[in-house]
Amino acid sequence: MSDMDFGREAGASCALHPEQVATGTCARCGNFMCDTCSQGGTSPRCPTCRARFGAEFPLNRDNWSIGGLWEVCWPIFQREWGMLSLAVLISFGVSFGSQLLVTLGQGIGSALDSTVLAVVLSLVGFLAQLVVQGLVQLGLLRVCFDVLQGGRADVARLFSQMHKVGPYLLTMLVVFAIIVVPLLILGALGFLVAMGAGFGGDMPWNMDADTSPAARWDAVAPVLAVMGGVSAVLLIPFIYVTLPLYFVQPELAYEDVPPGPLQLLRRCWEYARGQRLAMVGVGFLVGAIALAGFFACCVGLIPAMALAQLLISGMYLALRPRSDEVAGPLHG
User: Fold this and answer.
1) Other Cβ atoms closer than 10 A to 115
2) Residue 273, class by beta-carbon neighbours within 10 Å (0-12 exposed, 13-18 middle, 19+ buried)?
3) φ and ψ at 21, to 5 degrees?
4) What sign does the CA torsion over 195, 196, 199, 200 have?
5) Under a CB-based contact definition with an 8 Å cutoff, are residues 49 and 32 in contact?
6) Rounded CA gap, 220 and 240, in Å?
7) Which H/E stretch holds residue 83?
8) What is the pTM of this model?
9) E strand or H helix at 304, and its extent?
10) CA quadruple 89, 90, 96, 102: dihedral positive or negative?
11) Which residues 6+ apart lie within 8 Å of 47 measured at CB?
């Protein structure tokens, strides 16, 4: 940076954008940064340092643990709990507002006495609700990433992910197929096993109309038992396969330009490799926090959800590779 830059009446200039007035300095190299470089004041490092040295987050795949994650996230939550809670509250408000779209569609269909129109409008409203909620959820994760990387919680960042509607929809469709198709196969397999075991002859649809409810239940109970047994046997493999999906939304939120659905899922699988048991532990911790917030007269639910999101975001940052690491298979 030249002496002329330092002497400008408006103040120092940004090292990367000399035409922009500096609003801060990089926490690592000391270069002046403008709002663009600091991502609106949420990043303590300049783009060059972020690209070379990765996120300033103290945990990684080698040193992270549930206890370590708590030790990092809890002080940050204490510092930013107000703005994080406000972000969660706004996200709830957006969810409620999008739910009104579904109700409005049903009301319009009923007012016009058109069942088809009511169904179509309700379906469109429901899909819009899911998309808006999902994109705001990505924004909430982005806010959490900011504070975990040394920045401040900026509620406006809740709406910073709206341009990802295309990648979000494609990825969620793939995720939906990954979850639903195995469940359908599992249910069909259990049903076929039950039929093969000879439980099909006395099914309720083969009974007389005057058959008592108790008799119908006695007929269907063995089928349900067999299907339940098959489900129990396949439950652990199903959890093992689907647990990496935990990282789908964080990966979408973290990348400015998300990869395609298949590449994104491959990344999530690598992040989870060797870490599934710890991920389950974090899931139980997050659930316990949310439950405690609910029982705190529901008032504590908002900050509890904020803390839960912070923990999930921290786990993701710990398990994803730093940007300066060589691309390739992850270890541990």
Assistant:
1) 10
2) middle
3) -75, 135
4) positive
5) no
6) 30
7) helix 66-111
8) 0.70
9) helix 301-319
10) negative
11) 16, 37
Which tokens go with 179? 């979850």
CA distances from 64 to 69, 198, 278, 288 (A): 7, 52, 10, 20
How many Å apart are CA 226 and CA 229, to the nearest integer?
A: 5
Helices 213-242, 165-194: inter-axial angle, 10-degree rounding: 130
Task: For 24, list phi and psi in degrees, rounded to 5.
Answer: 180, 180
Cα–Cα distance for residue pair 149/44, rounded to 1 Å = 8
Structure tokens given for 313: 């975001």
For the chain, the average pLDDT equals 79
Structure tokens at 167: 């990648």
289-331 residue pLDDT tens: 988 888 876 668 899 999 999 999 999 999 988 654 433 333 3
Domain ranges of the chain: 1-48, 84-164, 177-272
Torsion sign (Cα): 91, 239, 263, 322 = positive
Q: What is the pLDDT of residues 142-187, one digit of tens each?
A: 999 988 887 788 898 899 999 999 999 999 999 888 888 777 776 6
Residue of 82, 218, 87 lying closest to 141 (CA atoms): 87
| pLDDT for the residue 95 | 83
Name the 3-class secondary structure at 25. strand
DSSP state of 321: P
